[in-house]
Automatic annotation (TrEMBL):
Keyword Repeat: yes
Membership in a protein family: Belongs to the PRAME family. LRRC14 subfamily.
Keyword annotations: Leucine-rich repeat, Repeat
Taxonomy of the source species: Eukaryota, Metazoa, Chordata, Craniata, Vertebrata
Protein name per Swiss-Prot or TrEMBL: Leucine-rich repeat-containing protein 14B
Superkingdom to which the source organism belongs: Eukaryota
InterPro entries according to UniProt: LRR_dom_sf, LRRC14/PRAME
Keyword Metal-binding: no
Gene3D superfamilies the record matches: Ribonuclease Inhibitor
Organism this protein belongs to: Ceuthmochares aereus
This protein's GO CC annotations: cytoplasm
Length: 519
């Protein structure tokens, strides 16, 4: 990528490559060269230079996404390098910016934006250690508290207390970093670094702690709220949340599995669901909604019709939707705007084939990502699927794992998929003919890996050959049996694993106890 570097960038690299020299000579550097030097230091992983650049940052804002993104001097986007060395140097530099300034220096910095960092699977940095969203939450909380500690210990220059820097960040809270973040939020008004939350993700956290963080966080800038996996948020808690908290800018809401279960509904529950729908309707900017693994049979209209803004993203995978739900979706005002849709876990061909394709036809011109896993799509449905997908010229991702399709049907489908110009990522199922005769769908976890791996490899090669012959090297086709890569899950998997084992153990103990009672 040397060809894409300007002469100025090459000079910047040469300057920062000798850390000792660069650090000594920073005071003589023009203000407008700091962004260039920062990107060069980041590329070369010069932690000490990064620290000093941030500590002496002469500009009003410090925006990671812009600084590391495509720039005139170097086109390469480095914002997906969440390199531990570089990020730690940035954040400690920020703490020292507050602490180590003589009052003669004009402090201009008002805004730090860390939200442009993208957590990806493959890291290119040399240290090979990443600092994900959870660790960034942890470190920023720790630095805010350290800063307060130093300020209390030392007879500081009173000017320090006039510094106020907003730090925009996407927080990720679990039980393990809860205490630190809680302390940092409680003392936020005294700290020169102000944690400003743009996105919030909760996992593995008791409800009481979840509500404590929500109460302490300034939600005026919150755009994305994800409550996932091990947060036992049920419908009544969601109603309390929506009744008591105002979300002026919220665009995206993800609710944990089993938030709703209409099978156990009473008249009071029906009223509660109506209230929740109305409250969601008051969130003016809401365009993304994920409610997977809730039982919502016959109630989709109640939740979605009060929304004022059409949804661009809807995940209702494994929500037991019936024909009435699909009819509502197909005729709703959301139908023309959906760019991302997940309808996994619904038997589309048996329940509502024509209604589904009518629904799809409304947003085919804007659809970017479609997920239809475990939908009982069989060989006889492939032609209908091809007809339905033909107008989807903007489709970038199509995931259809877990469908009982033969290798022959997959080849037919792949030949068509090559014609979709924007398609980059395809997740296809293990062909049915690789499994033992008589396997039933959806396949359970135990049988999932019991297929003829050699046969699968040779069919996958044939499918890739179809892509190659159509000059579609830009398309990636794979079969991630246990789901796609998720940076947030990956980063906290040890904590989540321990939590799952604990709850499994508790369930077993209860079960054993009840057996002992009956015997």
């Amino acid at each position: 990528s040397a060809a894409m570097k300007s002469l100025q960038f090459i000079s910047a690299e040469a300057f920062v490559s000798n850390a000792e020299f660069a650090r000594k000579n920073l005071s003589g550097i023009a203000r407008d060269l700091f962004p260039l030097l920062f990107k060069a230091s980041y590329l070369l992983e010069q932690g000490e230079v990064i620290h000093d650049l941030v500590e002496n940052w002469p500009l009003v804002d410090f925006n990671m996404g812009k600084l590391l993104g495509t720039t005139v001097d170097y086109q390469e986007d480095l914002s997906h390098r969440t390199c531990s060395v570089c990020l730690e140097s940035c954040l400690t530099g920020l703490r020292d910016y507050v602490l180590n300034h003589p009052s003669s220096c004009v402090k201009r910095l008002k805004l730090v934006d860390l939200t442009g960092m993208k957590d990806v699977e493959v890291q290119f940095c040399r240290c090979k250690k990443t600092m994900g969203r959870w660790a960034r939450t942890q470190l920023l909380s720790k630095l805010c508290l350290e800063l307060l500690f130093y300020l209390q210990q030392r007879q500081c220059d009173p000017g320090i207390f006039e510094i106020s820097i907003d730090v925009l960040i996407e927080l990720f809270v679990t039980d393990r970093n809860y205490e630190l973040l809680m302390q940092a939020l409680l003392k936020k008004s005294y700290c020169p670094l102000k944690i400003c939350c743009v996105a919030l993700r909760f996992d593995n956290l008791a409800l009481q702690k979840f509500f404590s963080i929500i109460k302490l966080t300034d939600l005026s800038l919150l755009r994305k709220l994800e409550i996932v996996h091990n947060v036992r948020l049920e419908m009544e808690h969601l109603e309390i949340l929506l009744n008591s908290i105002h979300f002026p800018l919220l665009m995206s809401l993800t609710l944990p599995a089993r938030t709703f279960n209409v099978q156990r509904f009473t008249a009071t529950d029906e009223q509660m669901l109506t209230n929740i729908g109305e409250k969601m309707g008051e969130i003016m900017q809401l365009t993304e909604l994920s409610m997977s693994f809730s039982i919502l049979t016959g109630r989709i209209q109640k939740l979605l019709s009060p929304l004022k803004t059409p949804l661009k993203m809807l995940d209702v995978s494994n929500c037991s939707l019936n024909h009435a739900d699909m009819v509502y979706l197909a005729n709703s005002f959301h139908a023309n705007h959906l760019e991302v849709l997940d309808l996994s876990g619904h038997n589309i061909p048996d329940l509502y084939p024509s209604t589904f394709f009518k629904f799809l036809s409304h947003f085919s011109s804007v659809l970017r990502i479609l997920t239809l896993e475990d939908c009982n799509i069989q060989d006889t449905h492939v032609n209908m699927l091809i007809l339905g997908l033909s107008p989807c010229q903007k489709l970038q991702e199509f995931k259809f794992l877990g469908n009982p399709l033969s290798s022959q049907a997959l080849k037919h489908l792949f030949t068509f998929l090559c014609e979709l110009p924007m398609l980059k990522n395809v997740e296809f199922p293990v062909p049915r003919d690789c499994y033992p005769v008589g396997v039933t769908y959806p396949i359970d976890d135990v049988s999932l890996c019991r297929f003829d791996h050699q046969k699968y490899e040779s069919i996958a090669e044939e499918l890739n050959l179809i892509l190659l012959q159509a000059n579609r090297e830009d398309m990636k086709a794979s079969t991630p049996l246990f789901g796609s890569y998720d940076a947030a899950v990956q980063e906290t998997k040890n904590e989540l694993g321990a939590c799952l084992i604990k709850s499994f153990k508790e369930t077993l103990e209860k079960f054993t106890a009840s057996l002992n009672k009956t015997s």
